[in-house]
Amino acid sequence: MARGIASKWKQPIFVGFDIKMTKSLLFDIIHNLNDIGFKVICCVSDCGGGNVGLWKQLEITFENPVFVTPSGQRIVHVPDAPHLLKLTRNWLIDTGFTLNELEINKKPLEALISKVTSEVSVCYKLTKEHLTCEEPQRQRVKLATQIFSHTTATALRYYKPIENIQLLDHTAHFIELMNNWFDLANVAHAQDKSTPFKSPYGVFLKEQDTLLDEVYNTINAMRCKGKSSLQIFQKGILMYINGTKYLLKILREHGLQYLLTSKINQDALENLFSQLRSRGGLNDHPSPLNTLHRLRMIILGKNPGIVSTNSNTVDNNQEDYMVAKSLELANINIKYDENVDKGDYGSDTDTASEDYDPQNINDHQNENEMAIDGIEYLAGWVAKKFKLTFPEIGCTTTELNKKKSLPDHDYIMPSWINHLSYGGLITPSNDFRNIIIRVERLFNKFTKHEVPKGPNVVSKLTNKIFSRMMVDEKFKRVIKVYIKQRVIIRMKYSNYHMRSLKLQKNK
């Protein structure tokens, strides 16, 4: 697939079955693209065995990720960042790392997950599946990003689930480092300035290069437990860093000031693969003929019902297929034969990462610190939705820090939100926090810690809970949003609990 590095288009350009990419084939593709006016400046691939073999043919290394075509054209090679993150996660949970004789491993994560004892928790996204992570879960980028996240690193530092502080701190720092690197390697929006690492590469170049240098030095010095040399994923990360820096220089030579790094990953191609498979159900493996037919429909823009809501990757660039856009602009309508290749439009992936760890649900009196922080965090999420309508129910942590010098403000600072926020999270006001805690108690009392059933359950629960509270009528819709989200959380928690029990019975 070819795609624009500074414009919104993509286009499949070569299809083969049981064909490995070779140096000569790649050069032919680049030559043909150049001939029709599309200058290739970068190539992307994952770290599969065939692609690593291609690296050797091209004579590229992590120190020098640039190859030269027969015409003398210099092209940067960049490994796929989501694939590198998954490989890093695999080695972390399988062996762990040593860095300057210090340990980095999954023990702090195991201890943290064991503390998740309620359905509402600050680390609700982390489950035992994140650390067992058997196939096909290892193919899902989302599970890796949830381990390597700012939330996970902050929770390790804040809750200190193990006594070995040195191991805890180094593991938390490594997780935060990988989170920041992946944020920088996955930028899709030019206007995102929330942190330097979520901004396009080149906008905050000093801070961004400082991060890349720290990641480079860390990965280069780090060794997988039991290994004495760099592994492929480490060489891939080092190659990515050197290649991205070189690519930015090329872009600036052509008048561009920054790079949207999500343009140099394989998400668009992975998303296409998911579309090709999604029409035939969970285990669909279309024949070559059906694949070509489906691909033709996608390229022409006639793609009814082919969606993949839970694909392994998410392409955030919203690019149009070039041929489909051209046909649309030319007002050419291609008829689609609905009788060809009919199938159920399902997804070939699961959503296990969105569920919750199966532990006993405590009542409010026995809720642990993580659960209370989770309720406050959820209250802040609701407050953000109504920030313009009811500004008194919460404010951002940045605004709160300004108000702290005022004598009469009624906001408290939940320490978890304070640690987690970059400045944009919402801190619920003291009054709103107390309202939500009361709503949470009544929700658990009326539902008896079970999934509520029947029609209009959210409206009925809202009316029942609201009638037991002394709250202004205007806040009823705010409470309804909280209850709706709690019902969704309860359903996910219950589903995960049932799946876990089923797995235990089958063992």
Automatic annotation (TrEMBL):
Domain Transposable element P transposase-like RNase H C-terminal: 262-287
Domain Transposable element P transposase-like GTP-binding insertion: 83-194
Annotated Transposable element P transposase-like RNase H domain residues: 1-58
Domain Transposable element P transposase-like C-terminal residue range list: 308-401
Protein name: THAP-type domain-containing protein
Cited InterPro entries: TNP-like_C, TNP-like_GBD, TNP-like_RNaseH_C, TNP-like_RNaseH_N
